[in-house]
Amino acid sequence: MKNKLSVILLFLLAFLTDGTWSRRHSKRQSQTLEEWQQRYLEKLQVLAREGGLPEEEWKGITKFDKDICYEKSCLDAALEFMTAVNFTVDPCNNDTWLDYACTRRVNGPDNIDQIGRLMRNTDKQTLDILKASTETGPLKNEFLLKEAQTYYNQCKNKGNRDVKDIYEFLSETYGNWPIFTNRDPNEKFNWATMVAHLNRMERKGFTPLILQVGIPGIGSHIELDIGQTIFGAISWTDFHTFFNRVHKNVGFKKPFRLDQISEMQTFQNTLNQVKMQSNINWLKFFTQIFASTEVPISNDTVVEMPFDTVMGVLHTLAVSDQKAVANALFFQFASMLIQESTTLVDDLNTFKCTEETGIREQICLTRTKEIFGFSLGKTFLKVYLDLDKATPLVSYLKLFDWYINVILGYKWMANSTKAFLEDKIQSMQTYITQPDWLKEKNALEKYYSGLSATTDKGSSYPVNFMNVNSCYDMEWSRYLGTTQATYNRATNQIREFVVHDFHSFMSLETLRSLHLTQESKGHSTITNFGPDAPGFMNYGGLGTVISHETGHSFDTSGN
162-341, what's its fold? Predict the structure, then answer.
């Protein structure tokens, strides 16, 4: 079956590109693929994987091959082919040929629902904003836009120098890394500081080493528990491979100390075995974790913890070789940053890496929206909804007139019904609102006051990632957003855009929970908004939303 698929694949690619592409292009095309070509190949790889092509065949799609044509016409043809073909079906069976060649084209990527299409379009609008000029034009000096653009570009364009940047950053911030310097950690090293900073890192599946701190519920106490303790899946060979990569990229002349790997493993495996009181400065520890947030930390702060377990961890730290402690913490910090800086995701508790699904551009767009969600939302309003200018959304507001034209064209509809519907449509109003707190003076500046993000697109992405996480922690900002009444961010207010279509002949009522005036029986679309989960309406597609809501005015949902 595999050989049949390979033959069919080559035959169809040759057919789609006139059958002579290999001979015509292989000698004169550059072996260095441009960014637009790489994006094509990433899309092809995703489609091939989703279409059931064996891993050994789709894995090499993004690598240069002198016998492949990389001109746009060839890549377009390949994209059409990959979109249509279902590789799990036998192409040599007459009964299943159409399923092989056509099923995915009919039922696959083009068959998306309204919201899916909306999200695809709005992502494109957001990318347009992230690629717009901030030096001239309407977005010149736009608040935080250059920082968002830098973060997006750094995430998308990786470089081998990232490993060296990470090593230098960790050494300058936390002191010697003993396995490479063969020296004791210097006065800069403090395990509690490193653990506190690790607790500020937001990555899926990441558990900080030694101790883990969290807030279990809204307005709740702080919870302290033992951190990562399961290391059985990481072998001596895994550690050796990792340290060898760092050693090579940084450019050390002397070999690293292999003997310290075993010492580090011994420390990791005895973290929770003994119990004892420690003299750690808890007030300083929690203050470092919640720095630049408004979470109140004092000697009266309530902290819940499994006492014996935590004391056992602290005792292990007290009696262990400090080189082993430092190596373990440096290893976790560096591995987390290096893995963030590649196209891999991983289970950071087992150090197992898998290829990240999706196109890199989309992955980085999502990460950028998570951090710069509110500022990008405000920028979108400026670009697409300026009522004093002919922006796209101003044109969308004419949708009501288009509905009237459609209704008046129905020959089967009674004139009295047409008159009623025309009056109903003309009575509708569209409201696109923002949370109350965003309307306050310098609201965004206050919200992002702790954010430290660079505008230098040539700077290091992992260092920028570290700075963003250190200065602006999204999870605890969300915690504040649900508990701090002084900042006026009740959960039901954190919505960037709320679209409503109402009928003016209905009685008005004020919904205090939303701080909005609405009409009874009017139909609305409300999408929860927050830095962690930006809704599709926060970034665009509002014309589609308006049309959708207007349509509800003629069904049972909107009366």
Answer: Neutral endopeptidase; domain 2 (1.10.1380)
Closest CA to 275 of 314, 240, 230: 314
Mean pLDDT of 429-441: 67
> Which candidate, 272, 338, 345, places its Cα nearest to that of 311?
272
Q: Using CA atoms, how far apart are residues 537 and 498, in angstroms rounded to an integer?
A: 8
- CA separation for the pair 467, 281 (Å, rounded): 24
Q: Give the start-end residues of each E strand in 67-185.
A: none
Residue 376 has pLDDT above 80, yes or no: yes
**Dist CA 145 CA 133 (whole Å):** 10
Q: How many residues does the chain have?
A: 559
Side-chain-facing half-sphere of 431: CA atoms under 13 Å: 18
**Per-domain residue ranges for the chain?**
2-107, 162-341, 367-552
Rounding to the nearest 10 degrees, give the CA dihedral for residues 519, 522, 525, 529: 20
Please name every residue paired with 431 in a beta bridge, in sequence order, or none if there are none: 500
Output the pLDDT for position 98.
66
C-alpha closest to that of 167 among 154, 155, 179, 153: 179
- The pair of three-digit structure tokens given for residue 173, joined into one six-digit string: 């911030």
* pLDDT at position 432: 59
Integer distance in angstroms from the first to the last C-alpha of the chain? 57
- Joined tokens for residue 508: 């008005």
Residue 482 has pLDDT above 60, yes or no: no
CB 272 within 8 A of CB 227: no
CA-CA-CA-CA torsion sign (473, 193, 303, 268): positive
User: In whole angstroms, what is the distance from residue 18 CA to residue 263 CA?
Assistant: 62
**Rounded to whole angstroms, how far apart are CA atoms 244 and 221?**
42
Is-contact 556 518, C-beta < 8 A? no
Q: Which of 111-120, 408-417, 424-433 has the lowest mean pLDDT?
A: 111-120
Give the span between the Cα atoms of 550 and 126, in whole angstroms: 25
Q: Is the pLDDT of residue 512 over 80?
A: no
Task: Tell me the pLDDT band of 117, cut-offs 50, 70 and 90.
Answer: low
Say whether 504 sits in a helix, a strand or coil. coil
User: Which residues fall within 8 angstroms of residue 424, CB to CB, at 6 or more apart?
Assistant: 503, 553
Within 199-319, where are the H helices? 236-250, 259-269, 282-289, 307-319
| Range scoring the smallest mean pLDDT among 89-103, 133-147, 542-556 | 542-556
Tokens of 322: 């400090």
Which of these, 9, 68, 225, 155, lies nearest to 457 by C-alpha position?
155
**How do residues 231-243 score in pLDDT, each as one tens digit?**
655 677 777 777 8
What amino acid is encoded at 362 in this protein?
Q
Please tell me the predicted confidence (pLDDT) of residue 484: 33
